[in-house]
Amino acid sequence: MNKYPLKDEPGKSMVVFEKAGQYYGHIIKEKTEKAPAKFVFETQRYGSLELLKADYPSAE
Question: What DSSP string runs through 39-55?
């Protein structure tokens, strides 16, 4: 499992999972003082981590 902040989505992070050689991610809205963290979106499956990160780049 890998987690990183998204480049063009302030306050959101990508959590990456691998299953059967395929990579996919969950976009999570970060928690605030008033609200808990929230699941926003699940990406399609990718054949490599690099392809997923090309579509959903890291802010770092």
Answer: EEEEPPPBSSHHHHHHH
Whole-angstrom CA distances from 21 to 33, 36, 46, 47 are 37, 31, 9, 7
44 to 25, 27, 34: CA distances (angstroms): 8, 12, 30
Model confidence pLDDT, tens digit, residues 2-52: 999 999 999 999 999 999 999 999 999 999 999 999 999 999 999 999 999
Pair 53, 60: CB distance under 8 Å: no
Pick from 43, 40, 39, 37: nearest CA to 19: 43
